[in-house]
Amino acid sequence: MPRLTSVPARVAGQASRLGVADRSEAERHRQRDQMQPWRGWYKTARWQKLRRKVIKRDGCICQETGVLLVGVHPAPDSPVVDHIRPHRGNAKLFWDERNLQTVSKAYHDREKQSLEARGLS
After folding, report:
1. Contact, 39 vs 30, CB < 8 A?
2. Cα–Cα dist 1/82, whole Å
3. N or C: which end of the chain has fewer CB within 10 A?
């Protein structure tokens, strides 16, 4: 039985019309950190300790949807500690445990961001 051979393409591939990003993702994050120094608070041991405390307090359950949060970042069912009232750099609001709740990554990245963008949170 004869072997099948591949047929060369008759149409050349189209070159991408999208330009290459000017900055890498890491550079974009660095620039955001410089513009908003409070973003560094998320990288502290104090925040990690508070985050674990809130997740434990809420029983690893999304306080908005009731979903059990068993995933590991970046899974949609991974826990995210969310500021109920956006802190916008206000240290008192940022560190206030009563202003924190555990939500799923899916909820935080979709519904919560949408609410904040519309000024409803």
Report:
1. no
2. 65
3. N
Cα torsion through 91, 97, 100, 105, rounded to 10: 100
User: Is this structure's pTM higher than 0.90?
Assistant: no
> Residue 79 pairs with which residues in a beta bridge?
104
Strands 100-104 and 79-83, bridge-based pairing: antiparallel
Distance CA 15, CA 5 (A): 26
How far is the C-alpha of 25 from the C-alpha of 43, rounded, in Å? Answer: 18
- Strand-pair partners of 76: none
Whole-number Å distance between alpha carbons of 22 and 1: 54
23-74 pLDDT, tens digit each:
688 887 788 777 888 899 999 999 999 999 999 999 999 999 999 999 999 9
Tell me how far apart the alpha carbons of residues 71 and 3 are, in angstroms, rounded to a whole number.
Answer: 48
